[in-house]
Amino acid sequence: MNIKFKVSGMHCNSCVMLIKGELEDLPGVSSIELDFKSGQGSVNIDTDLTTPDKVVTAVSDLGYKIELGEKDNG
Ligand SMILES: [Cu+2]
To answer: How far apart are CA 26 and CA 39, in angstroms?
Structure first.
């Protein structure tokens, strides 16, 4: 499943690296994209291993606000 999301509260590219690093540690997560300026991101998740909720929790726990957008099962 590919999930689009939007993160707010990022201040610099270190925030992007921090969030990407945290998501990379989740099982079943790959192809993480995140743009600092727009806050737009996307990620592929293997739904046998993880859920969109875990992505939200991982980012929220770092102190950023995340909103999930489109989910695509294709
Ligand atoms: Cu930063």
So the answer is: 20
